[in-house]
Design goal:
The complex is a heterodimer of chains A (323) and B (401). Chain A is mainly α. Chain A has 12 helices and 4 strands. In chain A, the strands form 2 sheets. A two-stranded antiparallel ribbon of chain A has the order 1-4. The C terminus of chain A is likely disordered. Chain B has 14 helices and 14 strands. In chain B, the strands form 3 sheets. Chain B has a 7-stranded mixed beta sheet, with helices on both faces. In chain B, helix 10 runs parallel beside helix 11. Chain B is elongated, with a radius of gyration of 23 Å. The chains are: A mainly alpha (323), B alpha/beta (401). At the A-B interface, helix 2, helix 9, strand 4 and helix 11 of A face strand 7, helix 9, helix 10 and helix 11 of B.
Chain lengths: 323, 401
Amino acid sequence: MDVDLLIGIFPQVLLDGITLGFMYALIALGYTMVYGVLEFINFAHSEIFIFGAFVGVEVLLGLKSIGLLDGLPWPLVLILALVVGMGASGLLAVTVERIAYRPLRGAPRLIPLISAIGISFFLQDLIRLVESLWRNAFNLVYPTMDVLNLRFELSETIDVSVKSLVVIGGALLMLWALHLIVNRTKVGTAIRAVAEDQAAASLMGIDVNRIISLTFLIGGAMGGAAGVLFGVQYGLINPYSGFIPGLKAFTAAVLGGIGNIPGAMLGGLVLGLLEAFAAAYLSLLTGGAFGAEYKDILAFSMLILILIFRPKGLLGEVVRERA
Amino acid sequence: MNRHRGYLVLALVAILAVALLPASNLEAQGSKGTVKIATQSPLSGGQAALGEGIKLGAQLAVEKFKGALEKQGFKVELVPFDDQAKPDVGVANAKNIIADKDILAVIGHLNSGVAIPSSEVYKEVSLAMISPANTNPVVTDRGYPNVNRVCGRDDVQGVVGSEFASATMKAKSVYIIHDKTPYGQGVAEFFKADAEKKGIKVLGFEGTEEKSNFDPIVTPMKAKNPDVIYFGGIYDQAAPFFKQSREKGVKGKFFGPDGMDSSDLTKIAGKAVVGMYYTSAAGPASELPRAKAFVDEFKKKFGKNPEPYAAEAYDAATMALKGIEAAAKGGKLPTREDVATAVRKTKLPNGITGDIEFDSKGDRKKALYFVLQVASDDPGKWGNNKIVKQLAIAAPAAPKK
């Protein structure tokens, strides 16, 4: 076994894992916020996430076609793509809630869940249909900006790309903004109140429906931001690319304690790191017997272990049974 | 309530009966029957570019050569199926295909992993399958009398690749990634085995189904600094992998099998793949001397350049039609078994991809293998990729059982 190699790639793997982890964290927020308020898993969130990525790529391609992609300063271009992507995903999430979930709010729990799965399939194929009619393409390539591909070589095996810095920075900014909204504003207080007890919140004069829509808007916008960052980081998206990251982010939300916002961030980071380390080290440590393809098995085995000892997730609290 | 429903059903049945009657009458008139040729290839999803090419190539051949059968009084039709590059969809389609008695031959598939289970279904009814693109040895090594291919084989293609890597690219070390499908992993294993024989050090052999985030694979690979990176798989996965590798500063040369052969490779990976080599069991249509008319006709009709394997599909469909013609001697609708036997015996001395003749297990007697180099990062210029090396190699004999 090559110890130098194992140590040499450690910082790079750490960085890869953190980048991936923040992406999972951003997506996981959408699951966890909705669960916190409605105790319902919005399985269409993976499509809301990839919808943001598609809107982002359309913005970039649109700018490119009018020659502004290289004309404008790159942070502005990115911010524009992010803002439009977030807005679009947020609105989509609100629309989906209004059409597919609100009419079912009183129904048994499994009913909206199935509705969510249906919406998920519907959105996948809708995106596919629109993209194939509009661009005649299945895979869409994020246009590259040269600045994003710059790398700082710290040593022979470690380098930091502007891209991953953008992803980490963007994610941190979003998480900080969300923290402020939820904990420091009146709206945030209302969201927390609705999460705690819908009936009581409504008696206090809170418009519960509006707050639920707002929760979907914020969660969807976070998903959209994650989508744009995902596209920027990995360069290629297709209508089905949202599914796997969505599933992983859901797992991250459960790992952190579903319904718990800091938990989603922690869960995302833990899962991202587990996955990156498993993929990079498995084949090195086992002499090729287990390759990188076993990364999910290792990551999810760890998850099962954690959940056996902490069934409510890392930061989850034991929720009182409702009367 | 119940009575109402009863009336409704009755009315529906009546409408259906009226609607169906004239149609079935029409079909019986004016023709001795319909001969259908099915295509099976991915028409949607990430590999649709190649799959569409297969369908259109076959369509062109059917339109051009159906005259002889029509003169005998048959109607000739092409029925395209979308296998989505998924084995389960391919098999489900195959079951529909064998249920339609008019279908006498299948042109397909693109992916060996889909072709192998689907051909088990065709075999049940001895339905002739001619593959334009399936290079995995198992496809023909099972010795089924109805399964043929007009392209080469991976056990040869892998060796052509390792030979080129060692002799021309002067590789001392190689890192191999594959997509865990029978095609990708298969060709990667043949490449690996022969590379080791030639003294090339194999630094890694990894399978992955990942389509977007290749970081965890690229990082250890970069640390090992291989001379050559071989991707056994298909462009929709290889292209983002190559792109991310270059962006992360990987310096090795990229190399791969015929799964790289699509303009979408450069559409996705751009500059990262310019100058890379790939082997192929299908020559670029623009470089085949007899294919010029085909390329022109294809462009005129469909408004785009033929993707790789479109020419092979054209030849495969031509073989199918010739086989059906031979079996239909005497003007009677042939059985599927007759067609399968006739296809195996058919010779096509003027195929656009060369002379085609099948050996006893359905491989082409002399298949062509190429090494090509990507010429430009403009997907429109994919056809300009130059042949660096060209070999005609006979298929190896079937393994002893």
